[in-house]
Design goal:
Layout: E1 2-7, E2 12-19, E3 22-30, H1 32-35, H2 43-64, E4 74-80, H3 84-101, E5 105-109, H4 110-116, E6 128-133, E7 138-145, E8 148-154, H5 160-170, H6 177-185, H7 209-222, H8 230-256, E9 260-264, H9 271-278, E10 283-285, H10 289-292, H11 297-303
Parallel strand pairs: 1-4, 4-5, 6-9, 9-10
Antiparallel strand pairs: 1-2, 2-3, 6-7, 7-8
Helix pairs in contact: 2-3, 4-11, 5-6, 5-7, 5-8, 6-8, 8-9
The protein binds 5'-O-[(R)-(carboxyoxy)(hydroxy)phosphoryl]adenosine and zinc ion.
């Protein structure tokens, strides 16, 4: 089965080709340069950039896979959650290709894509606890089987990636904040400042709003002195995010009675987080960095066990909400 997968939920235009479940190509056209000066994704600019980038990205994915559109047997695309305008570009293009060629079409939940990215490199046996930490979502799941995930906890306010992005903005760094903040933190002292990790939030829920406010006040209190301390501020702030995530992961493993852990989402590309989780001594599975951030290979992978639509008009995009995840 030769599947073309498309992902456009936020600010990455991505296409991939999978042949019998193996990733033959995966192309990501980043919009970082479009949004970097704004401190976050500007939805209208994201939609327009997707419109410009999508067809060339699909062509590149087909070329890299050494296939033509005539050789594709099925099409899959993200239908949510995400930015509605961005989602519409990818979903409409994917449905149009499928409809015009009478191919099966599969709509994929973006969160399931992140949850499944870990299975792309090697099969991870079920059950396991999965941490999904991205720019839009942060949650802990009990993964029982392919397509069978029970949510154990989720963020009460900001996502972990959002915390990175907002913290980076406070420190004068460009969007996306995660990689920039990690780089600045590399020369700083993670113990220089004591930022909160929402230890008071019981159970398996996350909260990052207090942390962000704490950095805001710290920068304000330091005044002119903040500039010289930016690496220390970044390192301590990153340390708090890593510890907040690790605390819930440890609680989640204990609650589920499991020692197998998988991680996904853009924040899973963070070096200190990867090292911290590796130090837990559990059976840890982390995708390579390119599979942590948004990509279409994970969407194609998840598409394999989602039933195709019988009517092309059946599926609408959605911005957020439950939908089983
Ligand atoms: O999964 P993703 O590409 O898109 C969403 O579904 O949201 O995640 C993007 C998020 C951004 O907030 C970005 O700052 C963060 O992942 N991120 C990182 C790193 N790379 C990306 N955060 C921390 N360290 C990184 N190295
Ligand atoms: Zn994502």
């Amino acid at each position: 089965m030769r599947l073309l997968a498309i992902e456009s939920s936020c600010d990455d235009t991505a296409a991939a080709v999978l042949v019998d479940g193996d990733v033959r190509s995966s192309v990501v056209a980043s919009q970082d340069a479009v949004h970097s000066g704004y401190g976050g994704v500007v939805p209208e600019l994201a939609s327009r950039s997707h419109m410009r980038a999508l067809l060339p990205t699909i062509e590149n994915a087909l070329r890299d896979a050494d296939l033509t559109l005539d050789e594709i047997d099925a099409v899959g695309a993200t239908y949510g959650p995400g930015l509605v305008g961005s989602l519409l570009v990818g979903l409409c293009a994917a449905k149009s290709i499928a409809f015009a060629r009478r191919l099966p079409f599969v709509g994929v939940n973006h969160l399931e894509g992140h949850l499944i990215s870990v299975q792309l490199e090697q099969a991870v046996s079920f059950p396991y606890v999965a941490l999904l930490a991205s720019g839009g979502h942060t949650a802990l799941y009990l993964a029982r089987a392919l397509g069978d995930y029970a949510r154990l906890g989720a963020t009460r306010d900001d996502a972990a990636g959002e915390a990175f992005d907002k913290g980076a903005r406070l420190l004068g760094l460009p969007y996306p904040g995660g990689p920039a903040l990690q780089q600045l933190a590399a020369t700083g002292d993670p113990a220089a400042f004591d930022f909160p990790i929402a230890a008071g939030v019981p159970g398996l829920d996350f909260s990052f709003a207090g942390l962000k406010t704490s950095l805001l006040y710290k920068v304000r209190d330091l005044g002119d002195g903040a500039e010289a301390l930016r690496p220390d501020l970044a390192a301590s702030y990153q340390h708090a995010i890593v510890e907040a995530l690790t605390l819930r992961v440890e609680r989640g493993l204990a609650t589920a009675g499991l020692t197998r852990l998988a991680v996904g989402g853009g924040v899973a590309a963070n070096g200190p987080l990867r090292e911290r989780l590796a130090g837990l001594g559990v059976d840890l599975h982390v995708p390579e960095r390119a599979l942590c951030t948004d990509n279409a290979a994970m969407i194609g992978s998840a598409a394999r066990w989602v039933a195709p639509l019988t009517e092309y008009g059946d599926l609408e995009v959605y911005a957020s909400g439950e939908r089983g995840l």
